[in-house]
């Protein structure tokens, strides 16, 4: 069954062949291990980035503390919407300039970034910073949106005429993509200039 090799030259040739095969196997294994380690590192980095983005899209959102409006008795329109907002629990810093608003109502849909809309203003009244960034859960900011020119009858700036009994959906979307929706319902009878919506 086993053949004894008596010739010394043949015995050496078999040993060299085995050594070459062994070295080739080690090289292949080393290259494969390098590829696996490189791929694993890339996948880990990508998974961490995806996790952070997913967390931001869920956590980095605004919380609407209160909402109100200014009612013009003469032309019977809501002329201005006022929102007091804060960071939701667990969120990172929120740049209100980069936050966008979407208004959906009977007059259609209007979307804009707060910074780009001349009829929208931001006032952070709980700190002295002027950069319009919420950095703490205790901070509050007021966002004002002018819908109507109060000095003109029916001059709609954003294309919305909110009258008594109307509804409007307002969605705030932060730079990370997290959204918060507020429902505005104008009472069917308004007797004051300032109304809680």
UniProtKB/TrEMBL annotation:
The chain crosses the membrane at residues 16-37. Flagellin is the subunit protein which polymerizes to form the filaments of archaeal flagella. Keywords: Archaeal flagellum, Cell projection, Cilium, Flagellum, Membrane, Transmembrane, Transmembrane helix. InterPro entries: Flagellin/pilin_N_arc (IPR013373), Flagellin_arc-type (IPR002774). It is found in: Archaeal flagellum. GO terms for molecular function: structural molecule activity. Coiled coil: none annotated. GO terms for cellular component: archaeal-type flagellum. This is Flagellin. Belongs to the archaeal flagellin family. One of its GO terms (biological process) is archaeal or bacterial-type flagellum-dependent cell motility.
């Amino acid at each position: 069954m086993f053949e004894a090799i008596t010739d010394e030259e043949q015995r050496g040739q078999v040993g060299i062949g085995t050594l070459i095969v062994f070295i080739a196997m080690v090289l292949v294994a080393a290259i494969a291990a390098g590829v696996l380690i490189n791929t694993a590192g890339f996948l880990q980095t990508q998974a961490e980035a995806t996790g952070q983005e997913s967390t931001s899209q869920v956590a980095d959102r605004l919380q609407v503390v209160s909402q109100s409006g200014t009612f013009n008795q003469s032309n019977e329109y809501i002329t201005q919407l006022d929102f007091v907002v804060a960071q939701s629990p667990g969120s990172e810093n929120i740049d209100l300039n980069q936050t966008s608003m979407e208004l959906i109502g009977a007059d259609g849909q209007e979307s804009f970034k707060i910074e780009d809309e001349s009829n929208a203003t931001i006032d952070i009244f709980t700190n002295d910073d002027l950069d319009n960034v919420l950095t703490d859960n205790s901070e509050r900011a007021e966002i004002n949106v002018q819908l109507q020119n109060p000095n003109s009858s029916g001059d709609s700036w954003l294309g919305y005429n909110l009258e008594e009994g109307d509804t409007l959906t307002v969605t705030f979307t932060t730079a990370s993509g997290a959204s918060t929706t507020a429902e505005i319902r104008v009472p069917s009878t308004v007797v004051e200039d300032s109304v809680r919506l």
